[in-house]
């Protein structure tokens, strides 16, 4: 498409801005991730003496890192409008977020909209595609204890066993509270055709805006983390022990991400900011874990129903620009999510000052040794 004379200055500015943003992102990653790793290394004695305090500090730094990623989109004008249940009310309980997956920007969107939900981000575990292990943020996720899952039938059984082991070894030992899961197992554009063929073959709902969820990871999470009940109290302990024991998973948060005109944001757009400012809409619905079937067939039906509801939510959004009101209400109420500019300034300043400090410390020891 030819560029007119009137458009040339605007396109030139977009290019310059994108290059400036990319340069800042590279510098931001270098100082922030390097400093995070250095702090984690220097705090290893604390990990041996007081593991809970160590993982608390690590979680705070992890939250700050995700806040920096969120700020890249925030200053490009990519904001979030929240709908449905207020998830702040369950921010201190254990929960699983079931999220539809359209593009890499979904992750960035969640990094942004969860920043003002207390310590949720600090105590969160992500389940993400193994390819993210090889990104700049992979080392941080490995240290934090996120789980990288390899897709494909040939890997499925092994990956579920590894997930079960990972949860048993890392979830409560690191004081995690929330798990973010994309049950569709891939991006909408990649899985839609396969999902629709599977639905037609097995007489399941035919979906357009989402795909049928996969059951395996959700089943493993519930079997590993839901506190089993015996005679009205958690299994494996008497009443005196209840306060010291985890209550287990208490909530399932059905999370639906919608982009205007069904045009999702990808990570390149989030970093370079070449797309015009846009508002991403996120709808929450909270379900008590006691209402979620734990047996495989019942869980499959329950998950399918959630994604049928997501389909209806997204259809309504794409037609009207808003999510439908809850049952019994005449209108849906939205809440604008905001980030504090002062908080962003402080964490970015801390990152760059830390990077400068660690550079000088490493340089000093290098000169002493060599």
From TrEMBL:
Family: Belongs to the 1-acyl-sn-glycerol-3-phosphate acyltransferase family.
InterPro entries named among the record's database cross-references: Acyltransf_C (IPR032098), Plipid/glycerol_acylTrfase (IPR002123)
Start and end residues of each Phospholipid/glycerol acyltransferase domain: 95-219
UniProt keyword terms in alphabetical order: Acyltransferase, Lipid biosynthesis, Lipid metabolism, Membrane, Phospholipid biosynthesis, Phospholipid metabolism, Transferase, Transmembrane, Transmembrane helix
Pfam families: Acyltransf_C, Acyltransferase
GO molecular function: acyltransferase activity
Organism: Zalophus californianus (California sealion)
Gene: LPGAT1
GO-annotated cellular components: endoplasmic reticulum
GO BP term, pick one: phospholipid biosynthetic process
UniProt xrefs under CDD domains: LPLAT_LCLAT1-like
Protein name: Acyl-CoA:lysophosphatidylglycerol acyltransferase 1 isoform X2
Residues spanning the membrane: 20-42, 54-75, 131-149, 343-366
PANTHER family in the cross-refs: 1-ACYLGLYCEROL-3-PHOSPHATE ACYLTRANSFERASE-RELATED, ACYL-COA:LYSOPHOSPHATIDYLGLYCEROL ACYLTRANSFERASE 1
């Amino acid at each position: 498409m030819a560029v007119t004379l009137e458009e040339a200055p605007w396109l030139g500015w977009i290019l310059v801005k994108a290059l400036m943003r990319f340069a800042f992102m590279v510098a931001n990653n270098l100082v922030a991730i390097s400093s995070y790793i250095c702090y984690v290394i220097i705090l290893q004695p604390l990990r041996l003496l007081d593991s809970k305090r160590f993982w608390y500090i690590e979680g705070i730094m992890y939250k700050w890192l995700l806040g920096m990623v969120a700020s890249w989109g925030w200053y490009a004008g990519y904001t979030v409008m929240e709908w449905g249940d207020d998830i702040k009310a369950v921010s201190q309980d254990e929960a699983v977020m079931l999220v539809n997956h359209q593009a890499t920007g979904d992750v960035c969107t969640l990094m942004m909209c969860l920043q003002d939900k207390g310590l949720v981000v600090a105590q969160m575990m992500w389940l993400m595609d193994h390819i993210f292990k090889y990104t700049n943020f992979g080392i941080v996720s490995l240290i934090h204890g996120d789980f990288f899952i390899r897709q494909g039938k040939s890997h499925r059984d092994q990956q579920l066993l590894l997930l079960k082991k990972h949860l048993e070894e890392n979830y409560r030992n690191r004081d995690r509270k929330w798990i973010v899961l994309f049950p569709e197992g891939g991006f909408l554009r990649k899985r839609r055709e396969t999902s629709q063929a599977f639905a037609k073959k097995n007489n399941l709902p035919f979906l357009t805006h989402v795909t049928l969820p996969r059951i395996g990871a959700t089943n493993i999470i519930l079997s590993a983390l839901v506190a089993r009940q015996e005679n009205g109290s958690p299994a494996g302990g008497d009443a005196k022990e209840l306060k010291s024991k985890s209550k287990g998973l208490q909530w399932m948060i059905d999370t639906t991400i919608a982009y205007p005109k069904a045009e999702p944001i990808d990570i390149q757009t989030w970093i370079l900011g070449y797309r015009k400012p846009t508002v991403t809409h996120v709808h929450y619905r909270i379900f008590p874990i006691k209402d979620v079937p734990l047996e495989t067939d019942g869980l499959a039906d329950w998950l399918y129903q959630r994604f049928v509801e997501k389909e209806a939510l997204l259809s309504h959004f794409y037609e009207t620009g808003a999510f439908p009101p809850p049952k019994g209400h005449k209108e849906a109420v939205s809440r604008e999510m905001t980030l504090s500019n002062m908080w962003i300034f402080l964490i970015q300043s801390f990152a760059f000052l830390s990077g400068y400090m660690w550079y000088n410390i490493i340089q000093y020891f290098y000169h002493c040794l060599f």
